[in-house]
Design goal:
By secondary structure, the chain is α+β, with helices and mostly antiparallel strands. The chain contains 10 helices and 7 strands. It has one domain: Class II aldolase/adducin N-terminal domain (L-fuculose-1-phosphate Aldolase, 3-Layer(aba) Sandwich), CATH 3.40.225. Strand 5, helix 7 and strand 6 form a beta-alpha-beta unit. It is globular. Bound molecules: zinc ion.
Length: 260
């Protein structure tokens, strides 16, 4: 299966309104095509109904030049951003890359991810828009969440979209690397949504669905006296148990074959 077709299937699955992950033009997906190139959803289209024409191929390093820009004049900044987005396109097309392309590019530059999915899941946002958003990263509730989402996730406070958000996320990912020795698979954006870093479209879907299920359960625990997080020892054990590693190995096999 072609990378773009697999990405399109992922977009349709994430945009399925019955999953409550994204509606209308919410969210976006991208896939790394090469070391410095990615294919990303165009601005303004719906994930549920997008076609291959709604994918724009862009150069990652052209987009990330925006992060070095220091001007604070918003109008100049907007003009410059528009021209860089235009210049990043690898083929001439009337479509414009999603406004969040700068964030996808930053994450590809900072990590080994090959597929990135951004959604606004209802349960994740119910917590992420609450006074208790911190609970999303306070602990792990059940083993399968650890298998898919890792033992820790990253929470980014609300930040202006575009270049400011990309800068804050880049710094957050760097801190995460420094403390965990690995990149996060799940990044919660408070008052906004969810970014999932994966190595295949099927893994991106699984992690996104698990993050929303985890948030649904967390909300449920708040109605039943509060969360009873697993102890750090239990989390560590699940993170390193042979059978869990076997399951991760199986997921890795699934991701390789889905790209075959
Ligand atoms: Zn968004």
């Amino acid at each position: 299966m072609d990378d773009r077709e697999a990405l399109l299937t992922l977009a349709h699955q994430l945009g399925d309104s019955s999953k409550a992950l994204a509606i209308s033009a919410e969210g976006n997906v991208s896939a790394r095509l090469g070391e410095d190139t990615m294919s990303i959803k165009a601005s303004g289209c719906s994930m549920a109904s997008m076609t291959v024409q709604d994918l724009v191929d862009v150069r990652i390093s052209t987009l990330t030049t925006l992060l070095a820009r220091t001007t604070t004049d918003e109008e100049t900044q907007d003009d410059h951003t528009r021209s860089i987005y235009e210049a990043s396109k690898m083929k001439s097309t009337a479509r414009t890359p999603s406004v969040e392309a700068i964030l996808h590019a930053t994450l590809y530059e900072a990590t080994e991810a090959t597929v990135i999915a951004h959604t606004h899941p209802t349960a994740v946002n119910a917590l992420g828009c609450s006074q208790q958003s911190q609970l999303l990263v306070e602990g792990m509730l059940f083993p399968d969440a650890i298998v898919l989402m890792g033992s820790r996730q990253l929470l980014i406070p609300y930040t202006d979209p575009g270049i400011p958000l990309a800068r804050v996320v880049r710094a957050g990912v760097q801190e995460f690397f420094d403390s965990e020795g690995t990149a996060p698979r799940v990044i919660y954006l408070a008052n906004h949504g969810l970014f999932v870093l994966a190595t295949s479209p099927s893994e991106a879907l699984q992690i996104t669905e698990m993050a929303n299920k985890n948030a649904t359960i967390l909300l449920g625990t708040l109605a039943a006296g509060g969360p009873n997080f697993l102890s750090p020892d239990h989390v560590r054990r699940i993170d390193s148990r042979p059978d869990e590693l076997y399951r991760r190995g199986k997921l890795a096999t699934a991701r390789r074959s889905s790209y075959g």
